Amino acid sequence: MQFLCADWSNIRKKLRQASHIILISDYDGTLTPIVERPEFAILSDRARTALKILVLKQDFKIVIISGRSLSDLKNRIGVQGIIYAGNHGLEIEGPGISFVSRIARESQPFLSMISNVLNQALRPISGASVENKGLTISVHYRQVKPRHVNDVKDIVEKIVGPAEASGNVRITAGKKIYEIRPPVDWNKGKAIEFIIKHFGIGCPISALVPIFIGDDLTDEDGFKVVETYGNGISILVGEPYKNSSAHYYLRTPEEAILLLEYFVTTTRDVCHTTDTNKCEQGI
Ligand SMILES: [Mg+2]
User: Fold this and answer.
1) Of 246, 193, 181, nearest in space to 220 by CA
2) Rounded to the nearest whole angstrom, what is the distance from the C-alpha of residue 31 to the centroid of ligand 1?
3) What is the model's pTM?
4) Cα–Cα–Cα angle for 95, 99, 102, nearest 5°?
5) How far is the CA of 101 from the centre of ligand 1 (A)?
């Protein structure tokens, strides 16, 4: 993995050949710094301004994908024209696309029940919180004292383990978070693949540049998908770690926002309109 700017000429080359850039970004830890409580993750005005300009550009599709619920994500970003993918892509909404996983929708009552039980069981542990996001549940433990972190794990396993063993839910882990998901074989990678295929129909593969920026283990599936495209660009935000599928990294969300601003200022350089007609049927 190398620092994005260190291979800038290669990136520029890919972008110059592109007629369709599908820019997909995670939210927490990617466009906003990791914060003590998820409600404190506020998008900066600079990032919002860059997104507002990019979304109007003909050659760009902007997608924000997150573990947050779709409504939470839309409220936090508040830019029209973006494709929003909430709950790790179980719900997707934006111009030209509308999708909700049927299995996830059907699992909602069961997940709601699990959420209530977890809430009750984790109440004695200071700093632990349960967030029912409709189609998935998050158990946050960033504020839990280190000596009680294993207690959170034990409670989650005790309550959710049997449902996972019987195939009724899935448990995944992220940065100081457990996610309880419906039993559907779906993740950020599959959602990203679905979105790229949806908007890339008819577009020559050489002119399609999918970019995915993320920061967490749950983003690895997305990096892998983007790398299956010859011109795909996968970018990890934060300290690079071994075995990541991302080819590039940026050090901070601040640098990710600088990248968005770079796209704003250089779009004329990177957009070739000559191939656009070939791709319009799919958009
Ligand atoms: Mg993240």
Assistant:
1) 246
2) 8
3) 0.89
4) 170
5) 21
